[in-house]
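Hey, I'm writing a tutorial for new members on how sequence and structure tokens pair up, and I'd like a real worked example in the thread rather than a made-up one. If someone can provide the structure for the chain below, I'll link this post from the tutorial.
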Amino acid sequence: MKCPYCHHADTQVIDTRISEEGDSIRRRRRCASCDKRFTTYERIELAMPVIVKKNGSRSEYESSKLRASLMLALRKRPVSAEAVDTAIQRIEEKLLASGEREIVSGHLGELVMRELKRLDKIAYIRFASVYKSFEDVSEFVEAIQEVKKK
């Protein structure tokens, strides 16, 4: 680790502590050249897969977009913010667990639909109607019957 003061490459770790949350490591370091001390933090860096859209374009995964989609489907529905956070966390865990560097948007849409079906059936129908581009009432009826079965 380079010293931030003199840019010397040789620094020594004096103290190491794990954060209270357990998600980072704090290290106190001392520069061998200028003898100044500084703190560094180590954190896990997890890279979410890139989303490949239907037209072939690619975009970075954005949690805020996922949240906005869920909130739109859940608008005026009795679902707690904690339940939405948990659903987002499950979706993100599945994306990370896939180990893929790229994921098609259709797969992400299916994950969202699965979580919405768990959270609220009406929100699921709302999302599915847009996601699957329902064009007539019979498609709504089919989706409602599918939800009723389970």
